[in-house]
Amino acid sequence: MNRSVRIFGVLSVRFIFRRISGSVVSRSRRSRARPTYDRRPDEFYWLWIVATAAYGVGDVVTTIALVYFVPHLGEGNPIVRFAMDSLGLWGLVAAKLAAFLVMVWISHLGARDGDTLLYYFPPLLLTIVGVMVTAVNLRLLFT
């Protein structure tokens, strides 16, 4: 029985059902197939290095510059704003790190289960979001 669910018509979250109701894939099939990150470890690392540079470094550094050096601007994301109001700079880092670790976990599960969409989607999404948010922050910083 295929217990696949689609969110937004794109993102497959079969791993949720594997956690709740047991594995959909037989153990013999899973033990024979090596996870994607074992077959191509350099690819896995480089996907996440680029995502870290764009989302982790670019967004965090430009957000810190905006919040602390431009007096009339603040954080636009209400979750990150709440974290920063509560914990300061560490709240920003904690919120970004939490989002990053959830995406690494999803990618790891996709690689382990052979789901290429779940393997590639998280680092690509973080890279795209990171580049876009960094560009917006830079535009706000220099205008």
From TrEMBL:
<dbReference type="InterPro" id="IPR043717">
    <property type="entry name" value="DUF5658"/>
</dbReference>
<dbReference type="Pfam" id="PF18902">
    <property type="entry name" value="DUF5658"/>
</dbReference>
<keyword id="KW-0812">Transmembrane</keyword>
<keyword id="KW-1133">Transmembrane helix</keyword>
<protein>
    <recommendedName>
        <fullName>DUF5658 domain-containing protein</fullName>
    </recommendedName>
</protein>
<feature type="transmembrane region" description="Helical">
    <location>
        <begin position="82"/>
        <end position="106"/>
    </location>
</feature>
<feature type="transmembrane region" description="Helical">
    <location>
        <begin position="118"/>
        <end position="142"/>
    </location>
</feature>
<feature type="transmembrane region" description="Helical">
    <location>
        <begin position="46"/>
        <end position="70"/>
    </location>
</feature>
<keyword id="KW-0472">Membrane</keyword>
<feature type="domain" description="DUF5658">
    <location>
        <begin position="50"/>
        <end position="142"/>
    </location>
</feature>
